[in-house]
């Protein structure tokens, strides 16, 4: 191989002919002047766009390397047609590209420009393989988001991965984004310590028969009284636990302790009380972690006809067949299944009827609208009517006012929970309530 050919291989990608990462770095370095980085040659600022092809690994795993190469060449040709000098484009990894835009009028127009490019990629790329092409992009702008090569590349990549994790197509770097990432990393570390030291506790929110005022069951809710930061909201730590996959260990702890509590209640003569436990879509999708939940269930001798596992519509949308198979395994124990937050997702009635669902919980967003007479109120009434026709049990969530309660009774909703009826309580307190019901009269 001659020297010219070696230099070409070193600097240019053999598959696409695009510059490689080292030429991208040279381009950025040339734009940043030596020294403080406060001035650049040419424009007052420039932007780096980091682009990754979504789900590329699955394409290669399914169709092979040849299919992957064809898609990459198609994308390369498309981007080359869209990005002209003085702008710059490079292929920096197997499924990743970078663009340097050294002239643009505003961040808003820049985002719009890149958005149009990646949105049109699937319609412009035609290959021999049926594969929907989508991409995620992150943007960092000099000098606002970095004054040197290292920080600019790092922040651009951070913006892209944030876009991917949020399910958005494009994201521009910001100081707040950096703070959010730091906070997330710190939360992951705190979660690990919390799980190892068992800092979590379970509260229980009673569910009532709305016509007799009797408590018929409780829902187990995880709470985190952090030793230094006080109570940390589940809305804060649960999403991070799901992203970091710490949800598996946390959920196993929840199921184990909830069933332990149920056994104690049964021994104390409260065997009639139902216990609801939330099951994340992550656990339901993971065979190995679902088996761990099954092992915990098998280790307890409780009345499983009084146990309810609650799932959300996310499971229905993503993995219907898998959900059906695993939920049926739970039902073999006598466990019933509740569909939580009903009405907030995008599932069809066909999907719902396929699933082994026993209970539908109407989301609090619909209950909140009562009794204003708007569309949500009508939907609530129709959901209840439909569920009754299909022999589902219905539970209204988030009852907070007397007006909401009276309306639900009027339309024959039998069961409900919410702060008007009773707040979530620690195990010792809920035991007293289950014995007397004096603290939760409505």
UniProtKB/TrEMBL annotation:
SMART domains xrefs: EAL, GGDEF
Residue ranges occupied by any GGDEF domain in the UniProt entry: 44-176
SUPFAM superfamilies the record matches: EAL domain-like, Nucleotide cyclase
Pfam families registered for this protein in UniProt: EAL, GGDEF
InterPro entries: Cyclic-di-GMP_PDE-like (IPR050706), EAL_dom (IPR001633), EAL_sf (IPR035919), GGDEF_dom (IPR000160), Nucleotide_cyclase (IPR029787), Rev_trsase/Diguanyl_cyclase (IPR043128)
Domain of life: Bacteria
Domain EAL: from-to ranges: 184-438
A molecular function (GO) term: cyclic-guanylate-specific phosphodiesterase activity
Protein name, as recorded: Bifunctional diguanylate cyclase/phosphodiesterase
Source organism: Mobilitalea sibirica
């Amino acid at each position: 191989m001659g020297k010219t050919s070696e230099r070409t291989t070193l600097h240019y990608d053999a598959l696409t002919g695009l510059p490689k990462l080292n030429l991208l770095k040279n381009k950025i370095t040339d734009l940043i002047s030596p020294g403080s980085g406060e001035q650049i040659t040419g424009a007052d600022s420039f932007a780096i766009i980091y682009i990754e092809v979504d789900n590329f690994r699955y394409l290669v795993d399914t169709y092979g390397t040849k299919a992957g190469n064809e898609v990459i060449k198609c994308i390369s040709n498309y981007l080359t047609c869209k990005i002209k000098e003085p702008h710059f484009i490079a292929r920096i990894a197997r499924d990743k590209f970078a663009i340097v835009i050294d002239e643009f009028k505003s961040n808003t127009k820049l985002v719009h420009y890149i958005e149009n490019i990646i949105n049109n990629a699937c319609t412009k790329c035609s290959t021999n393989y049926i594969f929907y092409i989508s991409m995620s992009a992150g943007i960092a702008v000099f000098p606002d988001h970095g004054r040197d090569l290292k920080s600019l590349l790092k922040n651009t990549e951070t913006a892209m991965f944030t876009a991917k994790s949020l399910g958005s197509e494009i994201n521009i770097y910001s100081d707040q984004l950096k703070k959010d990432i730091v906070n997330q990393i710190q939360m992951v570390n705190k979660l690990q310590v919390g799980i190892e030291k068992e800092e979590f506790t379970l509260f229980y929110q009673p569910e009532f028969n709305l016509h007799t005022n009797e408590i018929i069951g409780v829902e187990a809710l995880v709470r985190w009284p952090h030793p230094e930061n006080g109570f940390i909201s589940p809305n804060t730590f649960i999403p991070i636990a799901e992203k970091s996959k710490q949800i598996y260990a946390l959920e196993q702890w929840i199921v184990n302790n909830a069933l332990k509590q149920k056994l104690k209640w049964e021994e104390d003569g409260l065997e009639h009380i139902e216990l609801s436990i939330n099951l994340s879509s992550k656990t339901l999708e993971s065979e190995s972690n679902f088996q761990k939940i099954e092992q915990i269930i098998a280790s307890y001798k409780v009345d499983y006809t009084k146990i309810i596992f609650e799932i959300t519509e996310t499971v229905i949308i993503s993995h219907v067949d898998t959900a059906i198979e695993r939920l049926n395994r739970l039902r073999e124990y006598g466990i019933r299944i509740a569909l939580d937050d009903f009405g907030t997702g995008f599932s069809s009635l066909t999907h719902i009827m396929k699933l082994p669902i026993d209970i539908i919980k109407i989301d609090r967003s619909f209950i909140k609208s009562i009794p204003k007479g708007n569309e949500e109120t009508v939907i609530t009434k129709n959901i209840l009517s439909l569920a009754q026709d299909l022999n589902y049990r219905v539970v209204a969530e988030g009852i907070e006012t007397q007006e909401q309660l009276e309306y639900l009774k009027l339309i024959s909703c039998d069961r409900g929970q919410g702060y008007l009826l009773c707040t979530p309580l620690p195990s010792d307190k809920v035991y007293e309530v289950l014995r007397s019901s004096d603290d939760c009269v409505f």
